[in-house]
Specification:
- The complex is a heterodimer of chains A (259) and B (234).
- Chain A is mainly α and 259 residues long.
- In chain A, α2 runs parallel beside α6 and α4 packs antiparallel against α6.
- The longest helix of chain A has 42 residues.
- Chain A is elongated and about 65 Å long.
- The termini of chain A are far apart.
- The relative contact order of chain A is 0.16.
- The mean pLDDT of chain A is 89.
- Chain B has a single domain, classed as P-loop containing nucleotide triphosphate hydrolases (Rossmann fold, 3-Layer(aba) Sandwich).
- In chain B, strands 5-6-7-3-8 form a 5-stranded parallel β-sheet, sandwiched between helices. Chain B has a 3-stranded antiparallel β-sheet with strand order 2-1-4, with no helix packed on it.
- Classes of the chains: A mainly alpha (259), B alpha/beta (234).
Chain lengths: 259, 234
């Protein structure tokens, strides 16, 4: 007879299993990226980019605009009209923190939950088993295009958020508060270094990877019962949310070490 | 176990102490077997055994005489190239259109069939559906719809058309006769006979619940049909 699990093991084991499955999903996606050349996988990839990327353009634009206008207005009242300080704040708060995190939260709310629900529903309906029986590896067909699609869509959406928040937002804000745009844009471009862009890009790709890997692993891992379909979405959002914040902390410490 | 005969399609040898009571089955090209039991979940295990998906749980099973050594190695992917799978309920992917479902196995890996012109595939599809008693207008109206909207009978036919497109040495039908009315059963048997004529070097393996055993005397393409019973291991 198997010995009962130690209480600590009962707490730790689910975390270890989740971590193992999620890293496995992420590793599988990159190891098998070549399957994207097949038409069926390409179709899933295109659908994923369409849903996660293109259909999220409007919410991301609105969020970027709101953050840009709001922040410029607040900064003007707090920091005065000094261009350098305003631009520095914009760089640190919007470009490094708000844009990646808020974009990731929008993608998480729309696509992360949808992916987890869809895969859990496929599991409940026996479709994942059917894929195996048709000779199709569900890892290749379901996971690779979703993870890669999300890793492309999140940086692209973040870039849009950054452009709207730092470019269009101040232009709109200048209608309501006194602001000289040309010195602001000029100082902003001078502040942004190549290393900022590279670290920002790797941060956004990591966020996309976290959202898609957690969603896929949660969808696959839940029991094949209808009651677990909504729970898959809930679990996926919660787990991704925590991991996104932890990853953000990690990147913040990288910025801190660099400075 | 070694490859014994070039005409043999499938050999199953179930070991003691596994999921089912020991039994053996050998299907030659042009013949078939129907496996019945009381629990549909047992069929899941059995089909995974046939497909090589559960090698660690079960006994041994071989696809023999198919000229592909990889298929004898227990590799489920290699094995699946020789198995056509159709099911009454879960065989189609519900968030894909019917046409996408039909082409899915062809387009999901490096199969050379994937490069067939769409027009050529569409002709094959129309020909197969015609043999199943569906006219071109019906096919064109359904192909672009979601697989969710198909009836059980239509899903079974679509699954079999997909097998026809991919080609097979063993046709594996999971409860394809369940919940069909007598007219649909007749049409299905007629279509299976057409499939058998199109793939003469194949065998057929069907599963059904014991109380839903169909009359397969009209299934002339694959005869004789052995009857086997899955008894769960105690």
């Amino acid at each position: 007879m198997q010995a009962p699990l130690h209480p600590e093991s009962r707490l730790i084991r689910p975390f270890l299993e989740f971590f193992q499955l999620t890293t496995g999903v992420a590793a599988h996606a990159f190891a098998r990226i070549g399957v994207l050349r097949f038409p069926a996988t390409q179709r899933v990839f295109h659908k994923q980019v369409l849903f996660t990327g293109i259909q999220a353009l409007l919410p991301v634009t609105i969020a970027g605009l709101a953050v840009g206008i709001g922040l410029v207005s607040q900064m003007r009242s707090l920091l005065g009209s000094g261009v350098e300080l305003n631009v520095k704040m914009m760089q640190v708060v919007v470009l490094r923190e708000f844009a990646p995190l808020l974009t990731a939260f929008i993608v998480l709310g729309r696509s992360g939950s949808a992916m987890a629900t869809e895969i859990a529903a496929m599991k409940v309906r026996g479709e994942i088993r059917s894929l195996y029986r048709l000779g199709i590896d569900p890892g290749d067909y379901l996971i690779v295009p979703r993870v890669v699609g999300c890793c492309i869509a999140v940086p692209a959406l973040t870039l849009l958020f950054q452009l709207v928040a730092t470019g269009v937002g101040p232009a709109f804000a200048s209608l309501f508060v006194e602001m000289r745009l040309l010195p602001y844009y000029s100082a902003l471009f001078q502040q942004i270094a190549l290393s900022d862009i590279l670290i920002g890009l790797s941060k956004n790709v990591s966020f996309g990877l976290i959202i898609a890997s957690v969603a896929c692993s949660t969808g696959i891992h839940v029991p094949a019962q209808p009651a677990w379909i909504p729970q898959a979405a809930e679990l996926s959002v919660l787990r991704s949310f925590i991991l996104l914040l932890l990853a953000d902390l990690l990147f913040a410490s990288i910025y801190l070490i660099r400075s | 176990m070694t490859v014994t005969a070039s005409t043999e399609v499938l050999r199953i040898r179930q070991l003691d102490g596994q999921l089912f009571q020991p039994f053996s089955c050998s299907i030659q090209a042009g013949t078939g077997a129907i496996v019945h039991g009381d629990d549909p979940h047992t069929f899941d295990e059995f089909i995974d055994l046939v497909g090589g998906l559960e090698p660690s749980l079960t006994g041994t099973i071989q696809l023999a005489g198919i000229g592909d050594p990889a298929a004898d190695s227990g590799d489920w992917k290699a094995r699946s190239r020789h198995i056509g799978y159709a099911a009454g309920d879960s065989g189609m992917i519900s968030n894909l259109k019917v046409f996408e479902n039909l082409l899915l196995p062809l387009q999901a890996d490096g199969d050379p069939h994937a490069r067939l012109a769409e027009e050529e595939l569409e002709n094959s599809i129309l020909q197969a559906f015609d043999a199943a008693g569906f006219d071109a207008a019906w096919v064109h109206s359904r192909l672009r719809l979601s697989a969710d909207g198909l009836s059980r009978f239509e899903r079974v036919i679509c699954g079999l058309v997909r097998c026809h497109l991919t080609g097979f040495r063993l046709l594996l039908g999971e409860q394809i006769f369940a919940e069909l009315d007598p007219s649909q059963t007749g049409r299905l048997i007629h279509f299976l006979n057409w499939l058998g004529a199109m793939h003469p070097d194949s065998g057929i393996l069907l599963t059904c619940l014991r109380n839903q055993h169909p009359d397969l005397s009209e299934l002339s393409a694959w005869q004789p049909i052995q009857t086997l019973t899955l008894e769960p291991s105690s």
